[in-house]
Each structure stands twice: as structure tokens, then as C-alpha cells.
Amino acid sequence: MDNTLIPISFFLLVFGLVYLFLSIRNKERLALIEKGVDASIFMKGNRNTATVVRIIILNVALLLMGIGIGVSVALFLSYYTGLRPAPLILAATFTMAGLGLLIGFYLTKKMDKKAS
């Protein structure tokens, strides 16, 4: 009984968040239309879609590369220093993943400057 409640509550949570997002977005759009705002602001153009996809792919790629490099560095250090590998792997993985995301942030800023 307890094992079935977790997936059910998870899917109910996801459904509730999606429903809440869509209903609030609909109410916001209706309020803007009632005030006389042009409806063209709701249309998404192709100009932003490509850059958003590129930014997401760049950040995910750098995150995964950082995780891989962190695990490799931790295993290298644990082998040659004799330290326990478990905490070393955790620390190096988070450090290198954070470094990868930081590099992704600066590359994203550079891409935004180039696009402007």
C-alpha cells in the first residue's frame, strides 16, 4: 500500500502544477486582452526558440562533462592518495558540475551579447 502512494502522489503533483500553470496563464492572457494589449505578444517566434534550445543543450552538455570529469578526478585522486573514494567522488562531482554550469553561464552571456 505504501509503495503505490508515492507514484500516485507524484503524478497528482505534476498534474496539479501543470493545471495551475495553464489556468494562471489563461487568466493572465484574458486580463491582458481585456485591457486592450495586442495579442501578438502571445505568439512565439522562431528567433527565440533556437537560442533557448542551444542554451539548454550547452548547459546540459557542460553539466554532464563536469560530472564525468569530477568522477574521473576523484577516482584518480583516491587511487594515488589512498583516500576513501566515496566522499571524494561526491565532492569532486559537485565541484566540477558547478564549474561546468559556471562556464555555461558565461558562454550564455557571450551568446546573448553576440545575438544583440
Helix content: over 70%
What number of structural domains do the residues give?
A: 2
User: Which whole number gives the mean pLDDT?
Assistant: 86
Helix-strand pattern, N to C?
Answer: HHH
The gist of it:
The protein is mainly α. The protein has three helices and no strands. The mean pLDDT is 86.
Structural summary, described in words:
- The protein has 116 residues and is an all-alpha fold.
- It has two domains: 1-43, no CATH class; 44-116.
- It has helices at residues 2-34, 46-81, 85-115.
- It is flat.
- The relative contact order is 0.09.
What would the keywords be for this entry?
86% helix; 116 residues; 2 domains; mainly alpha; 3 helices
Question: SSE layout and pairings?
Answer:
Elements: H1 2-34, H2 46-81, H3 85-115
Helix pairs in contact: 2-3
